[in-house]
Design brief:
6 helices, GtrA_CellWall_Glycosyl, GtrA family protein
Length: about 140
């Protein structure tokens, strides 16, 4: 196995990554249902961003407690700022993919029912890998 493949295997075939997926999956479910609720009051794009922020706080607390188990509580403020930076990139990924799918790809493919929900669900899933790497090596290093 070459060096890159070995590093990828170690990065993503771990108990820590599995825990990250459970926490991230829980946050994604919260994100999705918050967005559906908020869409009754906000535009689609604004609802995506606000729901993402709500889920981000939820994910930070669970991630810090159960996935990246920081030993120093004095670093919490710095970790939260770093968490926000990593998630800032992730929300851009989520928003871009959700908008592209909802308003370009799915209509082009003839999908007319639940397009925003499908697009948002896919948009939430995409940053799982990039966020994990960012949080492991930057936020909670």
């Amino acid at each position: 196995m070459n060096g890159v493949a070995f590093r990828l295997k170690n990065e993503f075939c771990s108990r820590q990554f599995a825990g990250f997926l459970v926490v991230g999956g829980s946050a994604a479910i919260l994100n999705f249902f918050c967005r559906v609720f908020l869409s009754g009051y906000l535009s689609y794009a604004a609802a995506i961003v606000v729901a993402y922020l709500i889920a981000m706080v939820f994910a930070f607390v669970l991630g810090k407690c159960f996935v990246f188990q920081s030993r120093r509580s004095s670093r919490t403020a710095r970790e939260f700022i770093n968490f926000g930076l990593v998630n800032g990139l992730a929300v851009l990924q989520t928003l871009g993919i959700s908008l592209l799918l909802a308003y370009v790809v799915l209509p082009y493919c003839g999908v007319s029912s639940h397009g925003e929900e499908i697009a948002h669900a896919v948009g939430i899933m995409v940053p799982a890998f990039t966020s994990y790497v960012g949080h492991k090596h930057f936020t909670f290093k």
